[in-house]
Structures are given as C-alpha cells and as structure tokens.
Amino acid sequence: MSYEAYFQSIREQQLDELKQWLSIPSISALSAHKADLNKAAEWLADTLTRAGLENVEVHQTGGHPIVYADHLHAPGKPTVLVYGHYDVQPVDPLHLWTTPPFEPDIRDGKLYARGATDDKGQVFLHIKAIEAILKQEEKLPVNIKLCIEGEEEISSRSLPPFLTANRDKLASDVILISDTSLLEPGKPAISTGLRGLCSLEVTVNTANTDLHSGSFGGGVPNALHALVSLLATLHDDQGGVSVDGFYEGVPELSSLMREEFAKQMLDEDQLKASLGLDSLYGEDGFSFVERVGARPTLELNGVYGGFQGEGTKTVIPKEAHAKITCRLVGDQDPQDILDKIKRHLEKHIQPGAKLQIKDGEKARAFNIDPSDRMLQLAADAYEDVYGTRALFTKDGGSIPIVETFSRELAAPVVMMGFGLPDENLHAPNEHFNLENFDKGLLTIVSFLKRL
Amino acid sequence: MSYEAYFQSIREQQLDELKQWLSIPSISALSAHKADLNKAAEWLADTLTRAGLENVEVHQTGGHPIVYADHLHAPGKPTVLVYGHYDVQPVDPLHLWTTPPFEPDIRDGKLYARGATDDKGQVFLHIKAIEAILKQEEKLPVNIKLCIEGEEEISSRSLPPFLTANRDKLASDVILISDTSLLEPGKPAISTGLRGLCSLEVTVNTANTDLHSGSFGGGVPNALHALVSLLATLHDDQGGVSVDGFYEGVPELSSLMREEFAKQMLDEDQLKASLGLDSLYGEDGFSFVERVGARPTLELNGVYGGFQGEGTKTVIPKEAHAKITCRLVGDQDPQDILDKIKRHLEKHIQPGAKLQIKDGEKARAFNIDPSDRMLQLAADAYEDVYGTRALFTKDGGSIPIVETFSRELAAPVVMMGFGLPDENLHAPNEHFNLENFDKGLLTIVSFLKRL
After folding, report:
1. Contact across the interface for A300 and B327, Cβ inside 8 Å
2. Boundaries of each Peptidase M20 dimerisation domain copy (chains A, B) (predicted)?
C-alpha cells in the first residue's frame, strides 16, 4: 500500500487520537495546569510506545517533564533527533474562541484547538510517520531519537541542563523540528533563522493606597501616568526602538539577503486585508518580511492598572504593570539587552514613582547556512510531496532551545514546518490546516527515506 | 437630657443600625448589584419612617431609586433640604481590604466599611439628628425635606429629571449636604466649591485578531503601543494637560484666593509621608491645596490590554482600553472639554490604529460665596461643637448634582462634611472616624436649631 493510501485509510482514527491530546489543557505558563502537563506527557509516552518506539521515558524535571524515546536499529545510517513540545500558550481572551480551546473541532478542513499547530499537531506527524514506516516496512531507514519537552512556551528552562547531562544519549547527525510554517498554502519553507527573545515585567508604584481623584487629583503622582509616559519613551514614532545601544549586534541587511526575502513575494496588501488593518507598521526602509525576519523588536504584550470594570471609577491608581518581550537578531545578547532596557527605564521614570523590574526569559537568535546538505535533502522531501521546492527563509519567532541544541550537539537543525502563518498561534481560534496534516506525514516519511 | 448624653446613651444601638446599612453592597456602577441598591433604599425608607419622618417614598427611576421624606410642621420657619446618597463605589482591589468591605468593623475608634464615610455614614447622621430632636422636643425647629439618591457615584443620572419634575415639592431655603471632609481631625471646613467632572472611555483597535509576536512582531501595529503613545501625549512633563484649549475658562488664582488656600496650612511633608510618596506631583507654580482645589485635571483611572496573567505571553494585542476622567473648574464646560480631548486623540492616534471614544459623565464645577448667611450659620454650628470656626475651602471632588440643585432650586448649598481626608474614599479600607460621628450628630442639631 502506498503511504498515501495508508494514511488515508486511518485518517479519521489518527485525527481522533490527536484530538485526545489536544483536549488536555497543558498550559505551561499557568501553575494551576501542572497536572495537565503531566497528563499530556504520559499520553505522549503511551502513544510513542504504541507507535513502536523504544526506551520511552518521562523524565521528571524541576518544571514539566521531558519525554524521550528512540529507535536505534539502523547501524551505519544517520541519526535523526526530533524535537518538539507538548505545552501550549494560555487561551485568554476566552470569549473570542468560536469553539472552546480544549474541545477540538474540525471545520472547513481545519482542526481548531489550542496547540493544534503549535506544536502538538506537528509533533504528532513525526510519531505517525515513524509508525507508518514501521508498519509498512518493519524497520526504519535511519536511527531516530525523540525529545519532546513541556516548557517551550516558557523558555525551555529545564531542557538545557537535560541536554548537557545527556549529550551522548542525544548525539545525532541532524536535529529535525516541526514548529514553523509554510509561507502560504502550497508554498513550503525551511527556516534558516529564528529570532532570539528576552522578556521583562515592569511595575510602577506611587502612593501606598489608591486615591480619590477628587481629593488628590492634580496633586499626586498617578502610577498609570508614570507607566504610560515611561513606556512611550521606548519607541520613536517610526516604530524603531529608542533604547540606547539596542541595535548593537544587529547585522546590516545585505543585498543578497534582501533578494532572498523578496523571493517570498509576500503580498502586503493581501496581508493587510486578512488582518483587517488599514496599514502595516514598522521601521522605515524595510519590507514586512524583512522587519519580521531580520529586525529586532520591543513589544508590549500586556499593560494594566487601575479600574477595568463596568462604568467609571474616579481613582488614582497606586500601581501599574507592563509585560514586555523583545525579539532579537544577529549577535544581540539577551542579558545585555535587558540591562540596556533597565537603564533606559530607570533614567526615564518620573519623579515620585518607584520602578520594579523583573527579568524573564533569555534566548539568543539562531542562524544556519541554507547550503547545508540536510537542509537541501529536506527541500527535496518537500518537493516530493508539495511539487515545489521549499524556500529558505528567516522566521520571526523564537524557539529558544534551537540555538542551544545546535551549539551543544554540533549538528545542523532542519526546521521543517507544516503550519500556516494565519493559524492564530498564541491567539484565539488556533487551528491546523488538515491539508498540511496529510502532506506533513508524507513529507516526513520522504525525508527519513532520503537520508 | 442634653443631646450629648442622649446620643451617648444610644451610641452602640445606633452604630449597630448603621452597620446593617453598610452591610448592603449597594455598588451603583455594577449592574449585578441592582437588587442591593433597592435593598439599601428600602432600608433607608424604613429608618426614615421609624425616625418620625413623613411622606416617605421610594421613588423608582430608570436607574436606582430616589428616597424622599419630609417633616413640614414649622410654619414660618426655613425649609432645609438634606441631600445625600446611599450608593457606594466598587471595592476592588479586594485583597487590600483588612476586613471585608461589606462586613463593617470598628477598630481604633474607626468604622471600616465601603460607604462608611462616603456617604451612608454621613446621611445617617442627619436622620439620627432629626430623630433626636423629635424625641427630645417633640417638634422640629425647621421644616425638613430629605432627598437621598442611589446614583451619585455614577453621575446622578436620574436626579436632574426628578428635580425638574418636583421643583415645588423640593423647594427649600437651604440645601444641606454632608459628603465632604474636615481638613484634619478637629479642624472643620465648609466647602464653597466643587470641581466638575467629565469622563470618557477610549478603545484602540489594530488587527482583527491577537497576533504572535514572533510571526508578526515589528511588522504590524500593536494596540498597546498605539494607546500608550497616544495617552502619553495628553500631559506635558510638568503634569499639565496638553489638550488644545483645555485651560480655557479656568480662572486665574487671585492673591485673595491664594491667601484663603494658605490658611489651610497643609503640611506637604506630612502628606507625602502619610501616602508613602517620595514627592508630590503636579503643575508647577501651585501648592497641593491649590492644585486640588482650583486646577483642572485629566486622570487615567484605568488602562488595560493584552496579557495580564502569570508569566509571559508573546502576543501582539488587537485592542487596548483606557478610562479617563477630568476634574473641571470655573467655567469649563464638560461637553466642550470632551470634544477637545476627542479632537486631540483623533489627531494623535498612530497610523494603522482605529480609535473609539465613548462619552461618560458630565458635570460643571460649583462655587458659592462664603459670606452667605447660611454658610455663616453653619460655621457657628461647627464652632458650638468643635470649639473652632469652620474654614471656607474649595473641595477637589465632584458632587455633580450640587451645581444642578443650586441652579434649579435657587438656594444656597451648605456642604457640611464630617469625613477626614485620609479615610480612603473610593479605595480599600474606607472608614469613618467615630469622633466625627459623635460630633456630626451634635453639629447638625445645632445648625437646625440656629436656623
């Protein structure tokens, strides 16, 4: 039976199986979901065992478990390490979901659920591709290791020590990751770069109590005024970041890179229309693809303080909060960027307001040369299934562990993504287009056989 | 029996009675509390009836009920209209209350509860002062009307039409209101001015969905960036309001007014210490008392958007919100100010972001001449009880209906407050100092008898 026929014959059953996994609310950022992370890890371990993988382990960490499995019966053949994650992002604002985030629903050929594309759905493809080869051919053409973690959305805190402690066990010739996207339907891409990340939380305090705006208004500092005027100093009015030294280590865009970006032929008008935007926004002199692929950012992810209820409350709030993340490129060092932002904030905070800053995640940017043989083989595999060769792109997201993997295991990383850019990662109504579910299975099979 | 002895003899019983009223969570801003507003109005009507007042009515409105009562058996004597409110402010942040806001608790001679000082506690004084005179002397020295509403904290929407429709019924020689404060313990004050108020809610929208900051960060507008940079344009860095024409109609401070303000002898260092502030904040060239008493403000009461949970969420929010109120003085017109703010916001909103603005409350500032006979009699009454004459001050707060009352009924308004400035109005741990509970009862008796 062809692989295509094989996968078609058990499609419903496999989707039902994936839905089970997606029903587990494994939100790593919320400690209330700790048990769900364990449940999602156990579900994964069972599924790996049933798929024919060996040495399946649920490795406990200080955070959420890492699941390992392998199948090492192809002596002399390359070893592939598959990395992915079973944790998901928070789901608020919940009221914007058409169907509940943890009650997977298929509509118009798309599977809707938190984690459908990021990343349970894509990890599932690898398990089912391996199972398929084992069922069809009784052996694998390569040696396989899988390392699936539960802390990707909270900066993979436990993975680096696990990796260092298990360097021999994880040693591989190529690291294979499906946690990125096609450029658009039918247009596959292999990411040759990821942005780094750093995050911080800022709190501004003024008086020791909320105050009545009648009795005190005009005469005391307002924590929201202080925070808002502080945050407004972080950008210039062209979207650039105004923090001193922020752009040190950011590479100039070569004309070669600009050509590569231009090949993506992103239609900015279509993008605007699909996002309901009158205009895009960002640094002058760069296209959207360049801004996202090759430029660093500083984003406000959350700002809050004072009264949020119905109606009016004439209060002067005593505290206000901001959550900030930066995407980093080139040689920007996350700790150095955090230090620069802190200095900027301390310099610009208004008199009478007190500033507290808490560091969060830190990850360096990652880059790989597209001419690497493993990347070329991956492009061949895409061509087998999609009928078109993958483009080599830079991805704006961060998978913090990729840079660590590549450095620690000294192996090339193939980012073979099957998502789509409009699948609402980290937003309400996340989904996975099932066309790429079907083609993803075949592409992975093809890649493993080509190795 | 002296009034002092009378009130002492039933002090516990009266405080228990007040506690019952304070236990009813009559938060007018939250529609979920609708039934509690009715309950608080019914409680008030019963208490008025038991106190000996007549024609007690719970008048239903489109919002919360207005409670009316009178006692009109002193022909040829002046008629006093007592105004107050039984609605209270919201209570969040709840975790900052030492005891629950609707479980009244007496500690260190202070009664803690939402509404203790603003304004149930102060309304209660009038009822019990009238009851005392009726019990002690079997008649009142004046004619009395009471008009107690349930929408003061949400801008008294139903009262103006009630007032217009019942102008004859409410006609009086003086309007008596206890909803303000002494300057400090033992230092009574009669407010001769209130600031006006206007409010608005601002929403900024960007894309039609929250976006992943990796896939889109740097290339699309962020609703929080747009809101924060917009709000930052509303003030200069001296605390002044930057909206074009905002200060039109604001009177210059005469040297006479400055002298009057200076008499309050507010110790700014002590104020800073009590609020836990390193420094006060406000327009250059004005003292704290002047800033609050004679200058207009524009305050952010709430700002929110994006992720507010635990940890990090790398999201670009699609919407962000701000709640804004202004305190107005002199001839500033609330609608005109709202229009000016709207023009400012529309002018400064960044490209790619959409702005929605919703009008809220509107009230003009109020002022009265301190030489009015009714104000002088009130100062005498304070002197009888506190041993010191009340100062004539300007109050920074707004009681929107006062200006309407004064205009519609063409009568002087005596603002005879018994609160204290640090009693946490509109904030956690609101309380009422019982020294002023005791003295308030006697001062009201004295005022009614002096008329």
Report:
1. no
2. 192-350
